[in-house]
Write a structure and sequence with these properties.
The structure holds two protein chains of two kinds. By secondary structure, chain A is mainly beta. Helices cover about 0% and strands about 50% of the residues of chain A. Chain A contains no helices and eleven strands. Chain B has no helices and nine strands. The chains are: A mainly beta, B mainly beta.
Chain lengths: ~110, ~110
């Protein structure tokens, strides 16, 4: 069964450093998403991406965040200058037109 | 998207049916009811969705009241692996780019 994959599973970084989280969505999917979940809190939407551009973003997704689909398979989330409060699980998701979103296993980001 | 209300936690005996309620009294005519679950620290997993008719798949059944103001997710024979947080989400289906808005969900504990 096809699945969304994410790398790395755990990323540790120093405050102020740039990080890139990688996702490989399911191959025939067209809509891509990033969500995050701070420990013990709700899953929060960050951004959706379709047709090579951002279709929606939340207030969390400020200028420190960017997304890219550099080739036909990868979908990346970049945080330019990480803050302590960026520590969270980051989930990538994808879907076709049927709206069932498939989530990846997540990347645990720890900012020290 | 309409707001949903779910009990924060429920217990269920292994092998018995788990019935998880959700209130969505402000649901509008073009909004579907979606259920996802999140097993500890994993990515959310799609379970089922419906508009007004009852739905069943290999994982669960979804019962939606005639006025569509509430619904119940039924896991017919709960197992220990069904222990998870279950999220009821209401959203319009016509735009696949729409994000999912997760609330607190119901933490289901299946006990031996």
């Amino acid at each position: 069964e096809p699945e969304v994959t994410q790398t790395p599973s755990h990323q540790v970084t120093q405050m102020g450093q740039e990080v890139i989280l990688r996702c490989v969505p399911i191959s025939n999917h067209l809509y891509f998403y990033w969500y995050r979940q701070i420990l013990g809190q709700k899953v929060e939407f960050l951004v959706s991406f379709y047709n090579n551009e951002i279709s929606e973003k939340s207030e969390i997704f400020d200028d420190q965040f960017s997304v890219e689909r550099p080739d036909g398979s990868n979908f990346t989330l970049k945080i330019r200058s990480t803050k302590l409060e960026d520590s969270a699980m980051y989930f990538c998701a994808s879907t076709t037109y049927n709206n069932e979103q498939f989530f990846g296993p997540g990347t645990r980001l720890t900012v020290l | 998207d309409a707001k949903t209300t779910q009990p924060p936690s429920m217990d269920c005996a292994e092998g018995r049916a788990a019935n998880l309620p959700c209130n969505h009294s402000t649901i509008s005519g073009n909004e579907y009811v979606y259920w996802y679950r999140q097993i500890h620290s994993q990515g959310p997993q799609y379970i089922i969705h419906g508009l007004k008719n009852n739905e069943t798949n290999e994982m669960a059944s979804l019962i939606i009241t005639e006025d569509r103001k509430s619904s119940t997710l039924i896991l017919p024979h709960a197992t220990l692996r069904d222990t998870a947080v279950y999220y009821c989400i209401v959203r319009a289906v016509n735009n696949a780019g729409n994000m999912l808005t997760f609330g607190g969900g119901t933490r289901l504990m299946v006990k031996p």
